[in-house]
Amino acid sequence: MTIHLPPVPQRHAGAAGSGAALYAAVARLGFRRPFAYPQAALWGVVTNAFFGLLRVSVLAALFGVRPQVAGYSVTDAVTYTALTQAFIVALALFGWTDFMRTIHRGEVGTDLLRPMNLLGFWAAQDAGRAAAQFVLRGLPMLLIFQVGAAFTGGGLHWPAGPLAWTQTILSAALAWACGFLFRFLVNCAAFWSPDAAGFGRFAWALLGLGCGFLMPLAFFPAWAQAALACTPFPSMLNTTVELWLGLRSGPGAWVALGTQLAWTAALLALTAFTLRRGLRRLEVAGG
């Protein structure tokens, strides 16, 4: 039997406080899930540290005897590598297909019965997952790089002062929100294609390049930086890194945060619209 699901309105759980409690509960479950696999987190840290060492070696060779490259010092380059390695899993920079799989398997039909907005449900779940992964893998990664740099007589570059820390944390939250909406939007391709993973592979490659994970965007040619500035990708990681390193400060830091917020709002509107259109054509087979 094939069930055609019309675009039903999302049900709300009574008062706003009750709805917030539901999302908080979903976020807690998302946070707890990665802790069920501590060995996976441990070996993930080991793997990330190994590849981080390789990336540091490549960047160090780029500097040679020069004190700076495109505004980055050697310490900045090491810190950039530590940060990007720390955020790999938290920001799902290598891809995320959870929602896509629920569409293909028909499990999205069950999700639609939950007393909360579908996009909000997945956002809360992913927020908990991201926080847990940063605790399990991000913080140990920063510690490993800090200790390693200390042995060489240096250290990582840390935000200078409470304002810089506040701006960096806000930027990291916006980077997650912007990145999640982009990933969810890509996953919505499953409403129209039975092989949406192909769209995902292209999107994740574009994300890794455009967000500044593969290389700091400051190292790109001027024309490439200008082109990427017209996309949301720098807001998904590069802005946070530059705020952490102090490459953007004063009014420029607030402009960067405003840009992240604007892209997040634009992606939210686009993702919500695409989700509504996708639900109109959703079919769930079962008996």
TrEMBL record:
Listed InterPro entries: ABC-2_transporter-like
Keyword Transmembrane helix: yes
One Pfam family linked to the record: ABC2_membrane_6
NADP keyword on record: no
Domain of life: Bacteria
Residues annotated as transmembrane: 12-31, 43-65, 77-96, 139-158, 170-192, 204-224, 253-275
UniProt entry keywords in alphabetical sequence: Membrane, Transmembrane, Transmembrane helix
PANTHER family: INTEGRAL MEMBRANE PROTEIN, SLR1174 PROTEIN-RELATED
Protein name per Swiss-Prot or TrEMBL: ABC-2 family transporter protein
Taxonomic lineage from the root: Bacteria, Thermotogati, Deinococcota, Deinococci, Deinococcales
